[in-house]
Amino acid sequence: MSRTLYTNARILTANRPDDGEPWAEALVVDGERLAHVGDAASAAAAAGDDAHTVDLGGRLVVPGFVDSHTHLVMMGEALGKVGLTDARSLEVIQARLVAARRAAPDAPRLFGRGWLFDSLPGEPTAAMIDAVVAEVPVYLDANDYHSVWVNRAALAELGITRDTPDPLGGRIGRDADGEPNGILYETAAVEIVWPHLASVASDADRDDAVERTLAAYLAAGVTGAVDMAFNELDLAAFRRAAERRGGRLPIRVAAHWLVGNTGDEADNLAQVARAAELATETADEPWLRVVGIKLILDGVIDACTAAMKQPYANGSNAELIWPLEAAAPVVQAADAAGLQVAMHAIGDAASELALDAIERAVAANGDRPRKHRIEHLEYAAPGTAERMARLGVTASMQPVHADPAIFDNWAAMLGDERADRGFAWPEYVAAGALLAFSTDAPTAPHQALPNLYVAATRASALDPAYPAVHPQYALPLAEAIGHATRDSAASVDAEPLRGRLAAGLSADFAVLDVDPFAEGDAALLGANVVRTVVAGRTEFEA
Question: Is the dihedral of CA 45, 64, 515, 22 positive or negative?
């Protein structure tokens, strides 16, 4: 097979100073790997006379993005739902539901996603939906995917009545008379709504969702993804997707098995054992691997369900979904099995618990290779970054969650100086912890470039009318790209062969139609990916 020379480009390699040069002019692909990355003359010599040449017209090339915290099937499903993030009043939300119902009058259910708590006049209720769509069940995912807002028909379909108990770690919203009011928080969404909707969806529905996700990611320059809530149905859907392509997926997928707290230690450990079994089974698969487990320790700040050391502005606080006595045995078992442990921890009480559990696992299991992670870290107490660095724990964070257009309610729920330390990415860099950037799609847009705009500016990718919030926490664009490529790959790969552009590594890269380094960070908001190459193969071309 002849080599391919990609030339006439401005190439950001994402190399660290000890790895090689930060910029190049051309690269040579030989099979699935990069044979050479350097200046135009040396690349042409390395390619040889019989190489196929691709002139990139002076465009910017970056390593393929690795979305290191995402929900792949849910993302594909969300791409087919009514978008509500920019619907900033109840009237606009209702109008969109009416329009969607008119467009699909025979659909057995209506789905929406992305609504924000501060778009509504108080707590969401079923009556607000029933005023416009009452004849079919309606399910509306909150922007953070930690709450589901439903109508009366959906409550009936779910079998939720005044006698239904709140699940461990969740809450069924109720009116003054104790009747379910249409809002389901945390595990009431995860353990009641999600399984029900999975049971009424078909394999064909999931296959469609997977294909939407793969196409969307390739068009966004994403060459790898790390799922953070994988289950048996998701695994089967992605295996079918690989089978349709002769055993290969167009992006690399690593998955964390979602382990729910059942309140029974034996049941919890059985979930870990299943993840370990699948990790062994998929260890040598290049395109689809189970690498670890995921625990959701707390909720979200916007709904006051994240576990904080100090109460919210309204005086409330939230219980941990996984108390330490329940989490520690699970983390220890996963660590002993060589699994990566990823823990959702948005509040400072949750991140402290996560590190306590990891320390117990280290003490119990001794010195062994490990690369655990904490997800989100939206507010973490001073000293958390340093403690993570000492333990080798990755800070997995999502710049788009700090978008100023959705920040006001977040800050108002804290109501004090804690809001001034939200999403403090430079703390982790300064402490020496690995910082991996991702999107958490579908809780936020899946596109990498708007995500990087927020990272580099702390301004809004959703609405430019909002001023930047905490610009002191912005990171230089080249550094932000490194966190979304090189460091995201390192967060999940024991021996990273992806995420930067150097000889011997995988030929995973994206070509952009504009150069924000020349035109300014704002160019990211209008930029498009025109080519995505995965393992040497062009998987997307505009």
Answer: negative
- Clarify whether residues 150 and 123 are in a common domain: yes
| Cβ-proximal residues to 484 (8 Å cutoff; 6+ apart), any chain | 65, 66, 436, 437, 438, 448, 451, 452, 455
pLDDT at 472 > cutoff 90: yes
Q: Considering the domain boundaries, does residue 514 fall inside one?
A: yes
- DSSP secondary structure letters along 373-410: EEEE-SS--TTHHHHHHHHT-EEEE-GGGG-GGGHHHH
CATH code where residue 510 lies: 2.30.40.10
**Nearest by Cα to 140 from 73, 76, 77, 82:** 82
Nearest CA among 539, 536, 496 for reference residue 19: 496
pTM for this model (two decimals): 0.93
Q: How confident is the model at residue 2 (pLDDT cuts 50, 70, 90)?
A: confident
* Count of the separate structural domains present in the chain: 2
Are 105 and 152 part of one and the same domain? yes
> Model confidence at 495, in pLDDT bands (50, 70, 90)?
confident
The per-residue pLDDT for 286 is: 93
**Residue-wise pLDDT tens digits, 202-255:** 999 999 999 999 999 999 999 999 999 999 999 999 999 999 999 999 999 999
Distance CA 224, CA 239 (A): 16
Please tell me whether residues 94 and 192 are part of one structural domain.
yes
Question: In which domain, by residue range, is 522 found?
Answer: 1-63+501-542
Is the same domain home to 47 and 152?
no
Between strands 23-24 and 4-12, the pairing is: antiparallel
The per-residue pLDDT for range 67-97, each reduced to its tens digit, is 999 999 999 999 999 999 999 999 999 999 9
Q: Mean pLDDT over all residues of the chain?
A: 97
Q: How large is the average pLDDT for residues 45-50? A: 96
CA proximity to 71, closest of 354, 439, 342, 437:
439
Domain-embedded: residue 456: no
- Residues 71 and 196: their CA atoms lie apart, in Å, by 18
Last residue of a domain, one of 155, 185, 200: 200
Give the CA count within 13 Å in the CB-facing half-sphere of 372: 32
CA distance 394 to 253: 19
Q: Which of 200, 230, 254 is the last residue of a domain?
A: 200
What letter does residue 506 receive in the DSSP assignment?
Answer: B
Domain holding 170: CATH number?
3.10.310.70
CB atoms within 10 A of CB 527: 22
Name the nearest CA neighbour of 331 among 426, 395, 261.
261
CA 502 – CA 499 distance, rounded (Å): 10
